């Protein structure tokens, strides 16, 4: 009986392991096909692409080039320094020792004194003899310091610079009515009347020159020179022999600006216009283009009106002494003034402030950089 029971259990175990009709096979677990799995895996999640942020156009801050770039000078010997470019009537401010370095920011018209930074002076600047200084640079690049309003008010005028570089252009043959001169030896040609101006080249001895101007003491002569400013340049008067008297040549000052005496002013009424009433005498007539409420100035010497605020810009014409101008702007350093000038392409021109006497306040006028570009106003 016990054996039969064991045998019966073994049979039941064997039958359970076999598939029997009527019993549903277990439903297999479906694994996704490789293609479906790949499809699901490769479906990218849509990450929104940020819209490109428009970079605002940045208006660059104008680079204001300083008019005066200090130039190093080294003292050759112990030297006095003075308040003004003169030994007589100029206060001595102290002395400098041999081999002292100084920062030079200008020179006088004759180029025999240097203007330099001297913090101990009341105005922060002083003067030293040029002959006592070894200048570490080109003197022709220094501003020229003048005193149009008195010895205590120096004004730095930008140096004369050539319009282009490269070999000098050949001289033109003198015209039939030209005043002639002959180079007595090799001439150094300069952009202005003095050794303080940049050299433009040389002219061989024996060259016939067209003479166009002179300094009052005949120490420098102006000649036709295609590579110079306005087709002119300067040579030493000691090295040129003139065919005619020098008095027939127009006179220029040491800044290469034409010099003319002011015409006499009428004492009574001016000329009567046709069919009109005599006009009252005016010391300086206001030009028709005068704009109300803009400041004006009066010209003190015959000067060039230029297309930009530097003597290297093209000359648009001349203004005569006692002419009145309407001032519309100024450079940051105040050395050049923008004026109304109807014959200019944009109706504006530039004149050196040193030759303009102000008739009214210009402190509220807009500023321009050294290229004549408007600056952000304070």
Characterization of the model:
This protein has 378 residues and is mainly beta. The protein has helices at residues 2-16, 34-42, and strands at residues 71-75, 79-82, 92-96, 101-107, 113-117, 125-129, 133-135, 144-146, 155-157, 179-183, 187-190, 199-203, 208-215, 220-224, 232-236, 240-242, 251-252, 296-299, 303-306, 315-319, 324-331, 336-340, 348-352, 356-358, 367-368. Among the domains are: 71-157, Roll (SH3 type barrels), CATH 2.30.30; 179-252, SH3 Domains (SH3 type barrels, Roll); 296-368, SH3 Domains (SH3 type barrels), CATH 2.30.30.40. The chain contains 2 helices and 25 strands. The strands form 7 sheets. Strands 10, 13, 14, 15, 16 and 17 form a 6-stranded mixed β-sheet that branches. The model is unreliable at 11-67 and 261-291 (pLDDT under 50).
Strand content: 25-35%
Q: Determine the fraction of residues in helical runs and give it as a percent range.
A: under 10%
Rough outline: globular
User: Biggest β-sheet: count, sense, barrel?
Assistant: 6 strands, mixed
Assigned CATH class of the domain at 71-157: Mainly Beta
Order of helices and strands: HHEEEEEEEEEEEEEEEEEEEEEEEEE
What is the CATH topology assignment of the domain at 71-157? SH3 type barrels
| Counted beta strands | 25
CATH superfamily of the domain at 71-157: SH3 Domains
- The rounded distance between the terminal residues' Cα atoms is 122 Å
Low-confidence stretches: 11-67, 261-291
What is the gyration radius calculated from CA atoms?
42 Å
The pLDDT mean sits at: 77
User: Can you count the helices?
Assistant: 2
CATH architecture of the domain at 71-157: Roll
Which structural class do you get from the secondary structure elements?
Answer: mainly beta
